[in-house]
Amino acid sequence: MKQLLLGLLLSFGIFATASETLPSWNEGESRANIINYVRAVTDKQNADYIAPKDRIAVFDNDGTLWSEQPAYFQLFFAIDRVKALASEHPEWKTTEPFKSVLENNMEGIVKSGKKGLLQIVGATHAGMDEESFEKIVKQWLKTAKHPTKHRPYTDLIFQPMMELIDYLEANDFKVFIVSGGGIDFMRAFIPEVYGIPSERIIGSTGKVYYENGKIIKEPKIDFIDDKEMKPVAIYYNIGKRPVAAFGNSDGDLAMMQYTEANTNAKTLQLYVHHTDAKREWAYDRKSSIGKLDKGLDYAKIHHWTIVDMKKDWKVIYPFELKK
Amino acid sequence: MKQLLLGLLLSFGIFATASETLPSWNEGESRANIINYVRAVTDKQNADYIAPKDRIAVFDNDGTLWSEQPAYFQLFFAIDRVKALASEHPEWKTTEPFKSVLENNMEGIVKSGKKGLLQIVGATHAGMDEESFEKIVKQWLKTAKHPTKHRPYTDLIFQPMMELIDYLEANDFKVFIVSGGGIDFMRAFIPEVYGIPSERIIGSTGKVYYENGKIIKEPKIDFIDDKEMKPVAIYYNIGKRPVAAFGNSDGDLAMMQYTEANTNAKTLQLYVHHTDAKREWAYDRKSSIGKLDKGLDYAKIHHWTIVDMKKDWKVIYPFELKK
């Protein structure tokens, strides 16, 4: 009887733990891979145990932690800024990528890519100090709405991925953002929305200089944190090879391979595959934003975890929880 | 009687705390300034309270956390590397700063400054991956001895400053190194010796590229983290203005002024003034290494804390504790 009671308590215990971990993830291979990995590397008795100081996890942002369609959200911010400042810059009417922005030519803007986006951000904020810029982004995030979802952009974060970040942090992982997005733009919302502090946000940067107690932004690109530059950014900013990497596009492949090449630890690589045309968007090999082609082939061959959003996630966005 | 007992217990309690905080610091203004600052900003009832997430403290390394005479310790490492690799580089015999190194011309090497040092480090490690480099530094630190102190370089860290770092961390400050030293060199010993993880070490960097799962070092300078570039490095790496800054030279002045210009928080600036010719070294305005001239004037006018090593510190190095 005592034995039976103990057995019952134990099974309830296990059941309770299982239901609290990653609650917005459906049972299945993706969820199991994550949980099995975390349990293995945090168990001192396990051969794959990793000391807390080495539990470095890196996450891409656009398309991995929030949506990125029909264009990177930072682009919508930049478009609004270009329009607001256009009267001071008559030359923008005839110079790309500004011309496309002012003509609402979305295709032209998207064609200019991450580099065009950074040019726009650079040009619209030259001469401004970092703290003033942050205020402008925060104000925009409070008022702007996504063109088709008609919600604030920060509503469009992925609930299952937020749970994953919390789960890793609860298991003493140090979580970093390693994104092609502009660093100032990300710093304006990620600490509050994801709970990740500014010193763990790595992104693309513009040139700046120091003067009279302030950091002033210049209209020049310093570093584009994409593809092969993601491992370089990890080297400069973290100085330690990650053990877990999370992305959604070919731009994240090098970062994930750099993680996979860690010979000192068991590693985890996870791709978010956008397969849900109804609740989010469905795109991969042929998308101009968040293209996942070479990465998808590589991930399959190397048995990485590929999250099928439609199948693996109970909800996409946090606001769906309240329904 | 009960009241008396309580009073006794309380006073023992206070006495115990006071004697445990910064034990290698003599009573005096420097120690009091630090303790009063930390108490004020960590007390929720105090108008100067700072939330833990904003408790960012930045420390210079050379001359602030360990000695830097008769030359930056990294220079001794670089000299040993140049000599070890000289047979593969006949051109070094006629090219500065390598010529001076091979001729043991210390004056010539010191003249080449931090830039020369980085050239040497760059040239001796081009084509090497970061992890192999780290192993070489670790091996060197185990075996090399300081030319006049005849001790391993990592013995020459400042005990009172180690206590200060521990004290700040115990009070939920996030401590960062912001140094002109090479980032790979620092990462090879600071995590173990100071207990500060690699992602909180900011330094000068060389160019690198990513290839086949590895970060490969190039013989080019990327960023020299000195003077006005220290606030720039803080912007790129931390993304938040510090509230406390610790240095020892004019190279740290901009970083300390950037901290002082924080309008959101009470701040602390502290200069380590090398005044102890007997136990360490005495130098300031006229030194070619760790020159403290403009900074000393500025610090006096702005009532920053100026540590008089001779007067304020009971011991300089940890090994003195064992005497």
Q: Greatest chain-chain interface?
A: A-B, 38 and 38 residues
What is the CATH H-level superfamily of the largest domain in chain A? HAD superfamily/HAD-like
Oligomer: homodimer
User: If you compute it from the alpha carbons, what radius of gyration of chain A comes out, rounded to the nearest whole angstrom?
Assistant: 21 Å
Order of helices and strands of chain A: HHEHHHHHHEHHEEHEHEHEH
Number of strands of chain A: 7
> Class by helix and strand content of chain A?
alpha/beta
Signal peptide (chains A, B): 1-18
Enzyme class (chains A, B): hydrolase
GO cellular component, one term (chains A, B): cytoplasm
Pfam family, one (chains A, B): HAD
Features:
magnesium ion binding (chains A, B); Rossmann fold; alpha/beta; seven-stranded mixed β-sheet; metal-binding (chains A, B); 14 helices; homodimer; 2 domains; about 325 residues
What does this structure look like?
- Two copies of one chain form a homodimer.
- With 323 residues, chain A is α/β, with parallel strands linked by helices.
- Chain A folds into two domains: 25-68 and 154-322, HAD superfamily/HAD-like (Rossmann fold, 3-Layer(aba) Sandwich); 73-143, no CATH class.
- The first copy, chain A, has a seven-stranded mixed β-sheet, sandwiched between helices.
- Mean pLDDT of chain A is 92; it is low at 6-16.
- The longest helix of chain A is centred in the first third of the chain and has 19 residues, at 2-20.
- In chain A, strand 6 (268-273), helix 13 and strand 7 form a beta-alpha-beta unit.
- Chain A has 14 helices and seven strands.
- The first copy, chain A, is globular, with a radius of gyration of 21 Å.
- At the A-B interface, strand 3, helix 11 and helix 12 of A face strand 3, helix 11 and helix 12 of B.
